[in-house]
């Protein structure tokens, strides 16, 4: 009997039944796709979005726990606004502290390291105009490269003890607390000298308006105060319209020194015309024998009286060295000849019998100013000559005792730099002795007390309590920063390098 023709359904069903396992699998996958696809569509069109509007509440029962965070983190970038000033009637006008010193919007900034929040003097009333920024770093001269960040390890390389750096920080914080509302420092007189010395302390530790959270406002106010006074007084940095005051040449030399360093470390273009004019006053005030005198007197000596003063000259030489390091165009055209002549004056006051450099002539004050002569020679030559060798022997033949009858912070300020620049045996002899004396005598508040029975004014600062606590603290702070303020000057970095009398 012939086969009956099959219906269309039977012909469709036959291959499906022949491959029933594949068919079942396909049906299961189709069912899964339908179920999950439906769930997605339901979430999209029915469930609320993941975020919650203000005031919404959301269950966190199934939310993952937040990651553990350490208790100690770097502090956020602080606001530099000072605490509100105390309520007083008719407050004195104050300078505005700017975190960028330049007057134009494209002022330069430096990378901002993580540092402690600021501790601003309660006496300051400041309102910074803008926040710290990031930008290209300043390229410092090689001799100043160690001062970034308070030494950056450079200090230990040259023998700095941890106690010395701790003493520096206490000193800086004390100095900040003593800054007056106009940005200056004063011990009742000579605010120009004390402001310059204090500013040198902060700059020597690498503190600038662009890089220092803790001291940036303080440094800015100091620079602004010096700029303001310079603009009022035709760049006379003794804060007066002329040099008639007995100590004016001291104050102007120190102020020029400080502003030159400030420019080198900030490139604040406001300072350039002031520095040029200030340096020119120093050049014009140099005497024919190469020295400098009180009031920048260039008149002839009177009989046996010699006017050139090694103490006054020391600050002018340091200022001219700092002017050289600014890199301001054409600065060295006047700086180099002036220092050539200054070295001749140092040779004039040198005493070959004991290696000492005198005050106004050879042998008149024994060892007191020997550090000035040695430092000047090393700054200029970059290598020791015969007078330097003999001068170092003279320096290291004396005892260091803060309470001793011959102790003088002014003398030690120069001796410390002289021995450090020379390195070798002189520095090995000096470095531990002076650190132990200074760190051991620092007061709890960060200042230094008077030396026993010694006025130690150094030509300015008055005679009360050895020149006053600001005077003593700045000199001690600068000494303890010696490890990184100016690295030992090589011959390639020296100012002149020629020959002078006494070689």
Protein model, in words:
With 503 residues, this protein is mainly α. The chain has a domain of 341 residues: Glycosyltransferase, CATH 1.50.10.20. It has 16 helices and 2 strands. Strands 1-2 form a two-stranded antiparallel sheet. Helix 13 packs parallel to helix 15.
Write the layout of secondary structure elements.
Elements: H1 8-18, H2 20-45, H3 154-157, H4 162-178, H5 191-204, H6 216-232, H7 248-266, H8 271-284, H9 310-326, H10 332-349, E1 350-351, E2 356-357, H11 370-381, H12 386-395, H13 409-422, H14 424-441, H15 469-480, H16 482-485
Antiparallel strand pairs: 1-2
Helix pairs in contact: 4-15, 5-6, 5-7, 5-15, 7-8, 7-9, 9-10, 9-11, 10-11, 11-12, 11-13, 13-14, 13-15
Strand sequence of the main sheet, in spatial order? 1-2
Protein structure class: mainly alpha
Number of helical stretches of at least 4 residues: 16
Q: Which fold does the CATH topology of the domain at 153-493 refer to?
A: Glycosyltransferase
Top keywords for this entry?
disordered C terminus, 503 residues, mainly alpha, 2 strands
Could you give a short description of this structure?
This protein is an all-alpha fold. The protein has a domain at 153-493: Alpha/alpha barrel (Glycosyltransferase), CATH 1.50.10. Helices cover 45% and strands 1% of the residues.
